[in-house]
Specification:
The complex is a heterodimer of chains A (113) and B (110).
Chain A: E1 5-7, E2 10-13, E3 19-24, E4 31-37, E5 44-50, E6 53-57, E7 64-68, E8 74-78, E9 87-94, E10 103-104, E11 108-112
Parallel strand pairs in A: 2-11
Antiparallel strand pairs in A: 1-3, 3-8, 4-5, 4-9, 5-6, 7-8, 9-10, 9-11
Chain B: E1 9-13, E2 18-23, E3 31-38, E4 45-50, E5 55-56, E6 61-64, E7 70-75, E8 84-92, E9 104-109
Parallel strand pairs in B: 1-9
Antiparallel strand pairs in B: 2-7, 3-4, 3-8, 5-6, 6-7, 8-9
Classes of the chains: A mainly beta (113), B mainly beta (110).
């Protein structure tokens, strides 16, 4: 049973560019959340998608946007990249509200130069 | 967001129990206590969660104080694979996000 799949695993972008990260949830899950984890820190919540709508958003600027597709997969888009956007981006899936736990992927390591 | 306090690090010997404390004195009645762990180079992994009563599963046990202001995650027999950062998180029943702190880095000695 495949867990959460994220692509790509690593990415290098230049400041000012745009990036799209992708996530396929665990089979049977319908909700996708995105987190940003800076080096040495705990993950920070970006937003959650359910039924193709953004259900909750963390304290991140509008440069961070997302999308959920009918098959429950999701994309995270970041525009006008800053050096400070360099981080590990984690996708987590769950069934609805995640009361029985979230399943995380291994993340996409984004480096902005 | 309700706050939790955990020790920065703990060490344990292999095959011995590990007791990870977490203080959450401002917990509200609608906060569940969640534990996740993050192994090196991986995303966080769900461990256990509870509201008021102690909970057990195949990975660990969660002991919750009667006043709910503290809890303890118990790994019954530590293995080298249990070396990770362990996060204690309070999640309101009406909230969808997990608010991670710095966690406790657990080192297991062979």
């Amino acid at each position: 049973d495949a867990g959460v799949t994220q692509s790509p695993t690593h990415l290098i972008k230049t400041r000012g560019q745009q990036v799209t990260l992708r996530c396929s949830p665990k089979s049977g899950h319908d909700t996708v959340s995105w987190y940003q984890q800076a080096l040495g820190q705990g993950p920070q919540f970006i937003f959650q998608y359910y039924e193709e709508e953004e259900r909750q958003r963390g304290n991140f600027p509008d440069r961070f946007s997302g999308h959920q597709f009918p098959n429950y997969s999701s994309e995270l888009n970041v525009n006008a990249l800053l050096l400070g956007d360099s981080a590990l981006y984690l996708c987590a899936s769950s069934w609805d509200s995640g009361d029985y736990g979230y399943t995380f992927g291994s993340g996409t390591r984004l480096t902005v130069v | 967001d309700a706050k939790t306090t955990q020790p920065n690090s703990m060490e344990s010997n292999e095959e011995e129990p590990v007791h990870l404390p977490c203080n959450h004195s401002t917990i509200s009645g609608t906060d569940y206590i969640h534990w996740y762990r993050q192994l090196p180079s991986q995303g966080p992994e769900y461990v256990i969660h509870g509201l008021t009563s102690n909970v057990n599963n195949r990975m660990a046990s969660l002991a919750i104080a009667e006043d709910r202001k503290s809890s303890t995650l118990i790994l019954h027999r530590a293995t080298l694979r249990d070396a990770a950062v362990y996060y204690c998180i309070l999640r309101d029943v009406r909230d969808y996000k997990l608010s991670f702190g710095a966690g406790t880095t657990v080192t297991v000695r062979a």
